[in-house]
Amino acid sequence: MLKLSSINTNIAGTPILRDVNLAIEPGVLVGLIGRNGAGKTTLMRTVMGLLTPESGSITIGGQDMTDLAPHFRSQAKVGYMPEDRQLVPTLTVEENILIPAWANALSGAEARLAWVYELMPEVEAFAGRKALQLSGGQQKLVALARALMTGSHILLLDEPFEGVAPALSRRLASVLHTLKDEGLTVLLSESDYSHSADLVDQIYTIERGAVAAQEGAVK
Questions:
Q1: Residues 98, 113: contact at Cβ < 8 Å?
Q2: Which letter, b or e, does each residue of 35-73 get, where b requires 16 or more Cβ atoms within 10 Å of its Cβ?
Q3: Strand pairing partners for 206?
């Protein structure tokens, strides 16, 4: 479903990702574990086309996406939840969720939104509120809901549990369990295993931009 081959990514001339190889099969939830500054966000942004690798290839659903613009990821049904959420504070929750559908002229947006609300009814409960009125944990739920508008095949979740209160962390984990049961492919980054240990099928570790598969991590 997702394959990175010999990816090298620089930022402002500084090498960040170093010869990264990573492969995720359909329906698998994979953890990308590494401390802050290890390169997790750079890897996610490279997959999403927000950063261009110096070398290597990115394949999504069998299609080479290496040199394609970011919006082609939405067409490939990839959803992305950035670490800092990146909600538009003055828009309502529902408007934030619908932004990917509007930007990409997605068909079936209303049906997809109804499915998202069924999955996370608490998000529907504050759908009319401005994003700036929400707590950090609530904003994480909204960012996940927005990612799900396009991410019907693959989800990339960058530090979804960071800065979230325990109750909302448990709720996020519950939603991810449901998505996993429905066969969604997920790449989830985290600084350690504190929240993802019971979720992931496979683990990759990242250190100083180098990625390695952890032996014995597949359940």
A1: yes
A2: eeebbbbbbbbbbbbebebeebebebeeeebbeeeeeeb
A3: 211
Architecture of domain 2-213: 3-Layer(aba) Sandwich (3.40)
**Which two three-digit tokens encode residue 43?**
């890897």
Distance CA 95, CA 101 (A): 10
Shortest CA distance to 165 belongs to which of 190, 193, 141? 141
Confidence at residue 215, expressed as pLDDT on a 0 to 100 scale: 57
Residue pLDDT, tens place only, 34-67: 998 999 999 999 999 999 999 999 999 999 999 9
The model's pLDDT over 79-119, given as tens digits with 9 standing for 90+, comes to 999 988 889 999 999 999 999 988 888 888 999 999 999 99
Nearest to 140 by CA among 159, 160, 121: 160
How many C-alpha atoms does 159 have within 13 Å on its Cβ side? Answer: 21
